Amino acid sequence: MLTVASDVDVLARFGRALADPIRCRILLALRQAPAYPADLADALGVSRTRLSNHLACLRDCGLVVTVRDGRRTRYELADERLGLALDDLRAAVVAVEADKTCPAAASDGCC
């Protein structure tokens, strides 16, 4: 059963998903087109096990969905507006000092 998440919950889930570079790369790849896990792993240069863990996180966050395609499972963004949001975030200007890095999150866990 699907429930509607609060605005804060949606933003927190999106933020957690974007906190990891591999998950960001997965979302950007799925922004271009739906894909199968093996193809994503090859394209991103990560192991299938590692990719599977990140896809599970993105599924749990509600950002990607699976679509059965015969005996295979394809992944795609849960909503096309997520792709537009990714485009907007990429285009946003972020004020960053050259000698500063973003502090690591206190927890490395996912959604």
TrEMBL record:
HTH arsR-type domain: residues covered: 3-97
Gene3D superfamilies reported for this sequence: Winged helix-like DNA-binding domain superfamily/Winged helix DNA-binding domain
PROSITE patterns, sorted: HTH_ARSR_2
Source domain of life: Bacteria
InterPro entries registered for this protein in UniProt: ArsR-like_HTH, HTH_ArsR_DNA-bd_dom, HTH_Metal-responsive_Reg, WH-like_DNA-bd_sf, WH_DNA-bd_sf
Pfam families given in the database record: HTH_5
CDD domains: HTH_ARSR
Signal peptide: none
UniProt-recorded name of the protein: Metalloregulator ArsR/SmtB family transcription factor
